[in-house]
C-alpha cells in the first residue's frame, strides 16, 4: 500500500501505522473540504471507508482503512481509488 500510494497517488499521504491493522490516508493536498472528499470516496471510487471527521476536525480530510482483509480486497480497493484519482486528477 505504501509503495502504491507513493507511486500512483501523489496527492494522498499515508500516515505510517504504529503497529496496527488500521491505516490513515491524508487527502488534504487533494481536497478542500470533507463533503468533496466523501463524494470522491463514495461516489467516484465506490469505497466505504471510515471518514476521519468522526474523530475530530483535525482529521476531517483523512480516511481510515482496515487492512486486516484479504490481499485481493485491498488490491481491489487500491485499484478503485487509483481509477477515481486518475479520472479526477489526470
State the low-pLDDT regions, or none: none
Helix share bin: 40-55%
Mean pLDDT: 96
Structural class from helices and strands?
Answer: alpha+beta
Describe the structure.
The protein is α+β, with helices and mostly antiparallel strands and 90 residues long. The chain contains three helices and four strands, in the order H-E-E-H-E-E-H. It has helices at residues 2-8, 34-44, 71-89, and strands at residues 13-15, 22-26, 50-51, 62-66. Strands 1-2-4-3 form a four-stranded antiparallel β-sheet, with helices on one face. A hairpin with a 6-residue loop joins strand 1 and strand 2. The longest helix is centred in the C-terminal third of the chain and has 19 residues, at 71-89. It is globular and about 30 Å long.
Question: Mind sketching the topology for me?
Answer:
Elements: H1 2-8, E1 13-15, E2 22-26, H2 34-44, E3 50-51, E4 62-66, H3 71-89
Summed up, what is this model?
The chain is an alpha+beta fold and 90 residues long.
Amino acid at each position: 500500500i505504501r509503495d502504491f500510494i507513493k507511486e500512483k497517488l501523489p496527492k494522498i499521504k499515508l500516515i505510517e501505522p504504529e503497529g496496527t491493522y488500521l491505516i490513515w490516508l491524508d487527502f488534504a493536498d487533494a481536497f478542500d473540504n470533507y463533503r468533496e472528499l466523501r463524494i470522491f470516496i463514495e461516489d467516484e471510487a465506490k469505497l466505504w471507508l471510515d471518514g476521519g471527521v468522526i474523530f475530530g476536525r483535525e482529521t476531517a480530510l483523512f480516511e481510515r482503512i482496515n487492512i486486516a482483509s484479504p490481499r485481493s480486497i485491498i488490491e481491489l480497493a487500491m485499484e478503485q481509488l487509483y481509477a477515481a484519482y486518475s479520472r479526477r486528477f489526470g
